[in-house]
């Protein structure tokens, strides 16, 4: 059983990592970002908030006996469901294929909120690896975080869905600031170009709202790198398997920027 120690700060910084569509490397970014933050001396917890289609356990090559589902159903304590992960951080994993978590019920809202309220005083960073898209469950998980990091790739479908997600976050949650990381960038500077284009489109949309200033901040650009595929196939963290790779260096730069 993992014992959770007191963190350096009173309440953790909470970051929801999300995406408009699946397959853009959201969980890969989350796991390696957590490892990089841990390497910077922080106590980090990753909560798998993709409650019905979880795959953080696959990325980290973990085989949990207890998950968030067991916490929600009072089959285990919170501490029993917190596991050490490769990379020096902790995780709370979710089950996969559980249809009961496909919709947001009052009980699910209360359970998830209670879990986060209990863990936030114990860590410096809590990362929520949310599902993709804009379902009620995903949007509620995002609403529990102070900050949001949207992961997208340069593909047109990914960018269209990223725009839709950010648009919903500005309207439903009135977020004035969203962070963006472009994964699998084909060339240097591509992320900056994409961020500028998205910002312009979003500004036209939110500009009609008096007094509403919105900023989309590019905090990282992870280049397309063969090392990433190798690490994923091995079910290992990129930062541990290929720490000198261009993608690993980009993840470390991302961690430094959000931790500033």
From TrEMBL:
<keyword id="KW-0067">ATP-binding</keyword>
<protein>
    <submittedName>
        <fullName>MinD/ParA family protein</fullName>
    </submittedName>
</protein>
<dbReference type="Pfam" id="PF10609">
    <property type="entry name" value="ParA"/>
</dbReference>
<dbReference type="InterPro" id="IPR027417">
    <property type="entry name" value="P-loop_NTPase"/>
</dbReference>
<dbReference type="InterPro" id="IPR025501">
    <property type="entry name" value="MinD_FleN"/>
</dbReference>
<dbReference type="InterPro" id="IPR033875">
    <property type="entry name" value="FlhG"/>
</dbReference>
<dbReference type="InterPro" id="IPR050625">
    <property type="entry name" value="ParA/MinD_ATPase"/>
</dbReference>
<dbReference type="InterPro" id="IPR033756">
    <property type="entry name" value="YlxH/NBP35"/>
</dbReference>
<keyword id="KW-0547">Nucleotide-binding</keyword>
């Amino acid at each position: 059983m993992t014992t959770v120690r007191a963190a350096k700060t009173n309440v953790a910084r909470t970051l929801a990592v999300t995406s408009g569509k699946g397959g853009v490397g959201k969980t890969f970014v989350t796991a390696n970002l957590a490892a990089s933050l841990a390497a910077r001396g922080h106590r980090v917890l990753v909560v798998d908030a993709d409650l019905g289609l979880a795959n953080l356990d696959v990325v980290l090559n973990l085989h949990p006996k207890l998950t968030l589902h067991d916490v929600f159903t009072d089959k285990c304590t919170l501490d029993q469901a917190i596991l050490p992960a490769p990379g020096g951080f902790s995780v709370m994993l979710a089950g996969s294929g559980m249809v009961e978590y496909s919709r947001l019920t009052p009980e699910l809202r209360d359970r998830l909120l209670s879990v986060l309220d209990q863990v936030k005083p114990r860590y410096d960073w809590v990362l929520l690896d949310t599902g993709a898209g804009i379902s009620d469950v995903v949007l509620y998980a995002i609403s529990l975080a102070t900050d949001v990091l949207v992961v997208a790739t340069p593909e047109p479908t990914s960018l269209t869905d990223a725009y839709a997600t950010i648009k919903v976050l500005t309207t439903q949650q009135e977020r004035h600031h969203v962070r963006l990381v472009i994964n699998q960038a084909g060339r240097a500077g591509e992320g900056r170009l994409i961020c500028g284009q998205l910002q312009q489109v979003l500004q036209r949309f939110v500009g009609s709202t008096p007094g509403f200033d919105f900023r989309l901040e590019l905090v990282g650009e992870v280049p397309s790198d063969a090392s990433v595929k190798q690490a994923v196939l091995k079910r290992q963290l990129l930062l541990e398997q290929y720490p000198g790779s261009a993608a690993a260096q980009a993840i470390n730069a991302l961690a430094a920027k959000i931790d500033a």
